[in-house]
Design a protein that fits this description.
Radius of gyration: 19 Å
Order of helices and strands: HEEEEEEEEHEEEEEE
Strand order of the largest sheet: 8-7-6-5-4-3-2-1-14-13-12-11-10-9
Shape: globular
Structural class: mainly beta
Strand content: over 45%
Distance between the termini: 52 Å
């Protein structure tokens, strides 16, 4: 059913919402592989198109756009306003529109996470999620207000989205190739934890694999290396002991040494959506007060 393909977009988009970070250069005398990652505000736009289809997918074409507006600092934490609109063509003269809107905030110490999202299909509100999570010494406490009031107690080792990507940046700089840990991002109905597997490929040197997107026109990226990164998300409780578990979805992208990402591929198993970076605005960081 095409509606299943439309709804499949939701969890990956919410997980994607905090992928695009910018780290400042290491302080003098500090090794780049161990220097803290500092996040700089930026606004990015990605144009969407259909990559490939598999299995029983009825998607024949995709058109849309992703908008990210990231802000904050090391004192006040980091916020993101996100919207993704996709038109999915079934090839039978019918087009379904998915409109996902999300706002998040995560504390700079990675201990607090607030999230709110609405998912529309053909202008009808399908679901709405609102809540917050706090990491404590013995647990991660989640309080949901929507879709219905609910409290959850998760393991203390659960990682929030910003911390997830900070760890990816640090691992890439240190030459590591594999990371694995549980992530809570408030997606779907707000009550799921995903086991993640992150694979970081060989460093791409400056000038290698030239491209024509907005990152190519950014002078601050001209001399920076980057890495191909794949993050696979696995739903807990759905593994098959007799076979290798298939991820619920996966995200592929190229990650620059300063944290900017390009060349998105959002893999929903039945189909893949490509995202081309068409606009990038690096904003001035607000000083801590």
């Amino acid at each position: 059913m095409v509606v299943d393909d439309v709804l499949a977009i939701r969890p990956a988009m919410l997980s994607l919402g905090l992928l695009f970070f910018i780290s400042l250069p290491a302080a003098r005398g500090e090794d780049a592989a161990t220097a803290p990652v500092n996040l700089v505000p930026h606004r990015a736009i990605y144009d969407l198109s259909l990559g490939v289809t598999r299995a029983n997918s009825q998607v024949a074409g995709v058109r849309g756009r992703i908008l990210y507006d990231f802000d904050g600092n090391t004192c006040q934490g980091y916020s993101l306003e996100f919207r993704q609109v996709s038109e999915l063509d079934t090839g039978e003269g019918k087009i379904s529109t998915s409109d996902l809107r999300s706002t998040t905030w995560e504390g700079a110490d990675a201990k607090n996470f607030k999230f709110s999202s609405q998912n529309f299909v053909d202008e009808n509100l399908i679901d709405s999620v609102d809540g917050h999570a706090e990491r404590e010494a013995t647990k991660t406490a989640v309080a949901l207000e929507k879709p219905q009031p609910k409290s959850l107690s998760l393991a203390p080792g659960v990682v929030f989205p910003t911390e997830h990507m900070v760890r990816v940046i640090n691992a890439a700089r240190a030459g590591q190739s594999v990371l694995s840990f549980p992530v809570y991002d408030g997606s779907e109905t707000g009550d799921k934890v995903f086991d993640t597997l992150t694979v970081i490929g060989r460093e791409i040197a400056p000038g290698e694999r030239n491209h024509d997107d907005a990152a190519a026109g950014e002078a601050k990226l001209a001399s920076m290396p980057r890495w191909p990164v794949t993050i696979s998300y696995f739903e807990r409780g759905k593994s098959d002991n007799n076979s290798e578990q298939t991820p619920a979805y996966a995200i592929r992208f190229e990650l620059y040494a300063n944290g900017i990402s390009r060349a998105l591929a959002l893999d929903y198993n039945n189909f893949v959506i490509n995202g081309k970076l068409t606009s990038l605005d690096i904003k001035d960081a607000k000083p801590c007060r």
